[in-house]
Design a protein that fits this description.
Structural class: alpha/beta
CATH architecture: Alpha-Beta Barrel
Protein name: 2-keto-myo-inositol isomerase
Radius of gyration: 18 Å
Organism: Fictibacillus solisalsi
Low-confidence stretches: none
GO molecular function, one term: isomerase activity
Number of domains: 1
CATH superfamily: Divalent-metal-dependent TIM barrel enzymes
Mean pLDDT: 97
Distance between the termini: 18 Å
Helix content: 40-55%
Domain Xylose isomerase-like TIM barrel: 21-262
Shape: globular
Keywords: Isomerase
CATH class: Alpha Beta
CATH topology: TIM Barrel
Length: 284
């Protein structure tokens, strides 16, 4: 397994240049680049070619763009804007060597029938799949464990991806989101691990299901999520992608960027290494 850093973990106390410096220093293999803020911020003072050169001359590599948000059940104008954004991600991602674009389902207070949600997701993902195919970039759909997200359980998301049935469309498995809306281990045990493209590592304080928010996340191994059950099951079903640490903890934003990146590595490796061997990472 390889170790990845998601920039949400240092969202308020770092930037892309610093994240890259400290992640490379501490032996991370990959980074998930935030396209809604951290990449545009970087490009104000740097060129895309500088970023390409950085990845060419350092160990750390780009794993994913995070994220294409609210891809399903859009109105006509919103849909066109989303597709245009995705096409731009393809062009930029090809230059950088991005493997995945994380796609986040619509979050809304509007009530939408599950059938309509599924039909929209399947239709849009098939179109995005066709756009992405010549670029060699895959789409990783991330269900969000919140009542207002249109796709909020693993079982629902896996059914959508199975229906799409494209090699370049799979899932992000986020431990927090799996726990937060009560996704079942039985659904995970029945899944094909090759359909899971990215593993997001995190943990959470022990609040009731349905009211958890991203700010409740804590370092892996320090919370209430059954990480042992999740990781052992992922191993059994054949997941062999990266482990990417993703937290949104306000207290952790008070740390220095390097301290957060170092602690993220140590806690993630400690949890995951019970079930997986890391290719090149050691705790230190």
């Amino acid at each position: 397994m390889q170790l990845c850093f998601n920039q949400a973990t240092t969202l308020e106390n770092s930037n892309l240049a610093k994240d890259l410096e400290f992640c490379d220093k501490h032996g991370y293999d990959f980074i998930e680049i935030r396209t809604m803020d951290k990449l545009p911020e970087y490009l104000k003072d740097h060129s895309l070619n500088e970023l390409v050169e950085y990845f060419q001359t350092h160990h750390i590599k780009p794993l994913a763009f995070n994220a294409l948000v609210f891809f399903n059940n859009r109105d006509e104008a919103g849909y066109k804007e989303m597709v245009d954004e995705f096409k731009q991600m393809m062009e930029t991602g090809k230059k950088l060597g991005i493997q995945y674009v994380v796609a986040v389902p619509l979050v809304t207070e509007q009530k939408i029938l599950k059938e309509d949600i599924k039909n929209s997701c399947v239709e849009v993902l098939k179109e995005l799949s066709a756009i992405a195919e010549p670029y060699g970039i895959k789409i990783a759909v991330e269900f969000v464990g919140h009542p207002q997200c249109t796709v909020n359980t693993f079982g629902q998301a896996y059914d959508i991806v199975e229906t799409v049935n494209r090699e370049n469309v799979g899932l992000v498995f986020d431990c927090f989101h799996f726990h937060a809306m009560g996704s079942t281990m039985e659904d995970l045990k029945r899944a094909d691990g090759s359909k899971i493209f990215i593993l997001h590592m995190d943990d959470t304080e022990d609040f009731p299901i349905g009211i958890l928010t991203d700010e409740d996340r804590v370092w892996p191994g320090l919370g209430a999520i059954d990480l042992d059950g999740i990781l052992s099951t992922l191993k059994e079903i054949g997941y062999d992608g990266a482990a990417s640490i993703e937290l949104f903890r306000p207290e952790y934003y008070q740390l220095s960027a390097e301290e957060a990146i170092k602690t993220a590595k140590e806690t993630t490796v400690k949890s995951v290494s019970k079930y997986y061997e890391f290719d090149s990472v050691t705790v230190g």
